[in-house]
Give the backbone structure.
Amino acid sequence: MTAIDKLIENTIRADVRAIASYHVPDASGYIKLDAMENPYELPDTLRAELGQRLADAALNRYPVPSYTTLKRRICAGLGVPSGYDVLLGNGSDELIAIMATAIARQDRKAVVMAPTPAFVMFARSAQFAGADFVGVPLNSNDFSLDLPAMLGAIARHQPALLFLAYPNNPTGNLFDEQAMEAIIKAMGETGIVVVDEAYQPFAKKSFMDRLPAFPNLVVMRTLSKLGLAGIRLGYLSGDPKLLEQFEKVRPPYNVNVLTQVAAEFALDHLDVLDGQAELLNQERTRLAAELAALPGVEVFPSAANFISLRVPDADKTCAELSTGKVLIKNLSKMDKMLANCIRVTVSTPEENTAFLNALKASL
Ligand code: PMP
């Protein structure tokens, strides 16, 4: 054992040593359909205008710590009900970590819960924060919520934090609203429910207007899928008193000056980004129909900017697509109910057609 191996064994937590890093494959030269990014860039005129605004940003100063202007713009422009506030994060990934760090139980280890398969950072952030993660399997036939199982698990584990991604990643479907409300009610005063609306720009459905009805509800969104994955900005809407508690855990200056300027610029031009989302939704409809016509392929309904599907041999398909320089996500090893499933981001008509052709060749 080398000195550095000994140092790692003596200092780094065993559960951290045991896991692999969050893997992001090198995509240079690939058609990149693995990460739900918007393939469209801003029009040239807007890029020039943004460049000017970024040039004017005070990079010698720390960001204004309260982010008052950006928060006000988000609340007004993105449908946060009056009387509710937002907490900003370096992507919603950071908001998940902040919430997982802030929760606790007096009597025993805190539990974070989500229906599974779910976005991987729910479980990871729970683990890093020292909480237990309990996943409750979705119904395997249609990835809907198993409400009796969820209610049973809530009663048994009393989670302090429960995530419902609406629509869900990696399955793409919207859960039943009544079932979600029953879960929020069952959590009551003992647990916070995070409705994660990362894909809201495509689903156009939201729990934001239900904030006043449920004090234990918070709604989390991101600018990533809308076309600004590179700036890393997530926001969490909820009761200001609850957000104030999360605020204490937020690292100071977590949203940098360039992100702040770019986000405010994006809010000025939401119509452009919404137009791109609309194009992607049209392509989702086409892609789903073409996939459904392929023999041996099972396509799952999606309200997001990706489609999950089952193929005869996901490992073979992913390997062959990768050879053809098309990068998608193999879901097979994530959960047994996703055996032979793959996930593809909806992209431009040209890239979607390239994916379809590569898939056809591999089937
Ligand atoms: N929630 C869900 C459901 C997601 O799929 C993702 C990204 N894949 C995120 C949150 C994180 O988004 P970001 O950190 O880019 O805001």
